[in-house]
Amino acid sequence: MSLSPPTTGERLPPAGGPPPGHGADRFGLDARRAGVPGDGRDRAAGRHPAGSAAALGARVARPETTVLVVDAVPGHRGAAIEIAAVATLVSHLGVRASTADGRDALDEVRRTQPRAVVLVLHPSPEARGRHDLWAETWEAPARLTGALVQGGTDVIALSMWASAAALAWCVEEGALGVMHVDQLPGVLGTVLARPATRHPHTGAHAHRSGERAPLPPPFHTLVRLTASERHVLFHMTEGRSAAEIASALVVSVSTVRSHIRAVLRKLQVTTQLAAVAIANGIHPEDLAAPPLP
Amino acid sequence: MHPPGVGPAEAPGTGTGGILVLEPYPPLDAAPCLAVASVVLAARQLGSTVMVADLCRAVDSTRHAPPMVAIVALHGPTAHATCTPERDCWELGARITAELDALGVEVVALDMGAGAGAVAACTARGAFGLLSLDDLGGTLARIAAAGQDHPPGARTGGVGHPGAHHRPRRTRLERRRLPAPFDGLEALTGAERRVLQYLMAGHSTAEIADALVVSLSTVRSHVRSILRKLQVPSQLAAVAVATGTRPGPEAPAAAAGRGSLLRRRASDQPALATGTLPAGAPATGRQPAHALRGAAGRNDTAFSHGEPDAPPWRSGPGLLVR
Predict the structure, then answer these.
(1) Fewer CB atoms inside 10 Å of the end CB: C or N, chain A?
(2) Which residues are within 8 A (CB) of B228 and not within 5 positions of it... i.e. 6 or more apart?
């Protein structure tokens, strides 16, 4: 299987099966891996993500293909390194990658007409405990997704340990949600393998609403919340009681309680703790049952 | 197009004075997690020799090439690495921090999404705590500067590490403490940390009692002491503190521009806001990592180098607070 030359000067993973350490190659890390004798053995155990870089390289290595990597929460935290790392990962898949700030994303998309946008959601330490910033960290990515999808661009929303709620709302707006970066190569491959059908008049990619993929359970339940319920859920993740939420939102406590009940019902949980865990993107089974030492 | 600092790997250095980036969910699979890769990129931008290992192999790795600093990139579980007992990054992080600390390797616990609780588990054992990758440059510069103040050979701790005699003497007073809620998080016992992790995953006290095979009243008493130590009224608030979304009682939201790293000693609190950003940088907003390059020395006033001869027990958890 032959690959087109990589457009970025980076090494492409060799086709024909992942050799040990192929994943490290994509970051140029192999030469720097701490030299512990024999540490390559257990890596050959085959625990590679389904869409491994080598498998994908054959499918998507088209030099003209461009993907725009967008910082979904700009201005709060210099996530430049994470964005650069995602762009590097994408470029190692043989796809031309460029980066943009969320605020410039729409202009950049119009200018460069990328094949897809990878919207990177990340936690924002500055927004912690600041209600006034919640809309930007939780809602801005969804708004941007909506605008991009309306314009006919394929959007992949990637959560770099941001809240699952923010990711779910991007999915609601038509993005493909990726909860772990390990799954990005596979999803990107799926998106890029599709024919780039453009609208005959506008030139925009046709919107494929039928191809939305829900988030894995239990996070798929996050998409059905109303705006008020999202507000309440956000305050719950910050540990506020119903009374505190009521005073923050300037509504009555009973209104807040009814919103909380609605959130719990829609998330199919019985406690606020469980609802917050889902919003934070923590799967109950992420924690196996360890015995106490 | 081509992200800075992502060129082909340079020739491996001697390793001494380099940076060891640790993946918290061992064993390190073929693909290092992107969080780890991000840290590697950031560290390379700072011009350092960078190595990667997972927490299980951290100590072995230092034998081959003793690093100056080990960075634990505390990210959440990935798709194929959940938090099993062997992979519990809170406990592993704490244990490895203590081991590396004993070997004279400075440990930086960096929150990449695992939450404040995971960071606190490490800082309780002597690690530096960092809430944002942005602050990495300044922190590494300070650690390096502190290493130069204590030339090689000055180390007195007789730890049986092959590279120990090369190591600069540890400067304990450089230890930082994270904002107020971390006081409580650092003070948690192992059992309380475990219960808090279950609460974060949304489990009820009854489910925790089942999972840990202890009585309900034991779990309840752990929960009570968690709430007391974190000074919060509810389990929901305790989870928010452990996730890092709730500011502590002494760190009001008004301190938004606050530094992500604070001093370990309460008496040094005034220095906290100056310790994170280069001089003249805005307190909030984007702070590209490369802007921090060469920040060494500019913020030296934020440090005190006092008590260099503090006995080893001074770095223990009991000393942390107050």
Answers:
(1) C
(2) none
User: What is the residue range of A264's domain?
Assistant: 219-286
- Average pLDDT by consecutive 10-residue portion of chain B (322 residues)? 34 55 69 73 78 80 80 71 62 85 85 81 83 76 68 38 40 45 80 89 90 92 94 91 70 36 32 32 33 30 31 27 22
Report pLDDT digits (tens) over A45-89: 333 333 334 444 444 445 567 889 988 876 655 567 778 888 888
Tens of pLDDT, residues A105-139: 888 888 888 889 999 887 766 655 555 666 677 78
Contacts of B51 in chain A (CB under 8 A): 32-34
Residue of A nearest to B135 (CA): A78
| Residue A20 within any structural domain of the chain | no
Are A287 and B131 a contacting pair at CB < 8 A? Answer: no
Chain B residue whose CA is closest to A291: B212
Q: Name every chain A residue with its beta carbon within 8 A of the beta carbon of B68.
A: none
A91 in contact with chain B, both atoms CB, cutoff 8 A: yes
The ipTM (two decimal places) reads 0.73
Residues 208-237 of A with CB under 8 A from B: 236-237
Of A108, A87, A94, the C-alpha closest to A9 is A94
Provide, as residue numbers in chain A, all residues whose Cβ is less than 8 Å from the Cβ of B243.
237, 280
What top-level class would CATH report for the domain B19-179?
alpha beta
| Record: contact B31-A53, CB cut-off 8 A | yes
Average pLDDT of chain A is: 71
Considering the segment(s) B183-243 as one domain, its CATH architecture is Orthogonal Bundle (1.10)
Whole-angstrom distance, CA of residue A215 vs CA of residue A198: 27
B145: Cβ–Cβ under 8 A, 6 or more apart, which residues? B296, B297, B300
